[in-house]
Amino acid sequence: MIDLIVPSLNAGLEKYELSKDSEAYKVREEFLKDLYRKCGNNRDMYHVYDEMHGLKRKERPAMTGNRFAAIREYADTMTDRWNVRCAGEDWRCNWWTVSAEYADMNAPWESDLAWIKVYVSLKDMSQIADVFVDAVKLLLEKSEKRIYAKVAAYKREDCMCFWVYRQAFDLLEKHFASNDNIIGGVLPFVPYRGKLGISRELALFSSYSGELANLISHYFETVSSAEEVDMAQMFSLLVDAWNHRLPADHPIQRTFNFSDAELILLMVDSMDVITGKTALTDDHLLMQDNGPLWSALGESRNWDQVEEHYKTALERAKIRQEAYESKQKARAEAAKDK
Fold first, then answer.
1. What SS3 class is residue 88?
2. What does the DSSP 8-state code read for residue 109?
3. For residue 28, what are the contacts with CB-CB under 8 A and spacing of at least 6?
4. Domain-by-domain residue ranges, the chain?
5. C-alpha distances in angstroms, 42 versus 39, 72, 101, 231?
6. Closest CA to 49 of 206, 183, 193
7. Could you report the per-residue pLDDT of 56-104, keeping only the tens digit for each?
8. What pTM was computed for the model?
9. Strand pairing class (147-152; 95-102)
């Protein structure tokens, strides 16, 4: 018997009511109203996404191949620990990326869903190369687990992102806290811990911001003027759709009919932080790197499925760990025989 406690006030929720009292709520609802006015009849989710992130695709930051080469050179000194891959920007790419996987091919498997996604914005985009390279070097040197990082090839508010496990997040948090004079800018629908935006990797082939843009664009189909835009109603409709309480032809029901528990909790828990109902403390759901829990949430299409999927995820994790330990034991015995 597994007694699963999901560390969220919204786990199992049937209805969702977002408080309208905070200034943070009012600012974001006004943002949505302005967005409705800007979009006009063009309510495409990609247009909404660009507006949310302040994208300016024709403005290119000062990230160069020479600066990226510094990461490759540093990684070459750590080939016993990491298998590092760097992808540089070309005319087809939106990001420069760095992935550091374990050099040991037999290292234990870890879920991408356990990653904490960290957004970083800068006051001065001319510093983007130095800031990104320094942060990646720190992670390569001190992170205990694999990492992924990317920096934008064009101007956007969230100019760099890091996917890290909790120990590496603590490294980043301390690093940027000591350099907080360079951090600036806020994404309107991302919760923040200090000056770092926090989100999660999704089981879907999408992102939190992409799904939020999807929600906004389809919600706009249900209103006829900016004055009708009601952010609390939008998120209430999302949860109603998750619980299959909207008509089948409702735009939000059609779009989120097969959503998972991870996405729903990420959406509403993020809004609770943004509006001040909760805070991103160490025990908050978004700060957890419990791979089996996130896997269970990502596989569940209703609340009743979460505990069973969690049990299965724990069993899978146990099997992988036992296989890893068996390989390690065999390697040690082989080394003794040499």
1. coil
2. P
3. 188, 189, 231, 274
4. 65-200
5. 5, 42, 41, 19
6. 206
7. 877 776 666 677 788 989 999 999 999 999 887 554 567 889 999 999 8
8. 0.93
9. antiparallel
Contact 238, 264 (CB under 8 A): yes
Q: Are 269 and 276 in contact (CB under 8 A)?
A: no
Please, what is the end-to-end C-alpha distance for the chain in angstroms?
46
322 to 51, 103, 108, 111, 296: CA distances (angstroms): 48, 20, 9, 16, 20
Question: Strand, coil or helix: what is 187?
Answer: coil
Question: Which of 195, 219, 205 has the alpha carbon at shortest distance from 36?
Answer: 219
Half-sphere exposure of 96 (CA within 13 A, CB side): 27
Handedness of CA 123, 126, 128, 130 (dihedral sign): negative
Contacts of residue 279, defined as CB under 8 A and 6 or more positions apart, other chains included, come to: 273
Residue 17 CB burial class (10 angstroms; 0-12, 13-18, ≥19): exposed
Q: Judging by beta carbons within 10 Å of its beta carbon (0-12, 13-18, 19+), is residue 40 exposed, middle or buried?
A: exposed
Could you give the CA distance from residue 220 to residue 216 in angstroms, rounded to a whole number?
6
